[in-house]
Amino acid sequence: MNKPSKPIPDEEVDDGLGPVPSEEEMEAWLVRNRDAINESIIEARRELAEGKGAVWDTDEILSDLRAEFERARKG
Predict the structure, then answer these.
(1) Is residue 5, in this structure, part of any structural domain at all?
(2) Where are the annotated segments for Disordered (predicted)?
(3) Is the pTM of this model over 0.70?
């Protein structure tokens, strides 16, 4: 009979993204990137106003998520 496994704490899972930044690190990143973030928001709003934005289809998004979940579950 197999022994039950212990859950792996989130901080021990290697997702390839590195450690989760602290609040101070996140704030410093936002300050460093504020201009680029604001420009990105302005550009997105301009594109939406010009009709270039795609309408999100909730059913399509959920379908994609279900498929991704199944692929991940099957390993």
Answers:
(1) no
(2) 1-22
(3) no
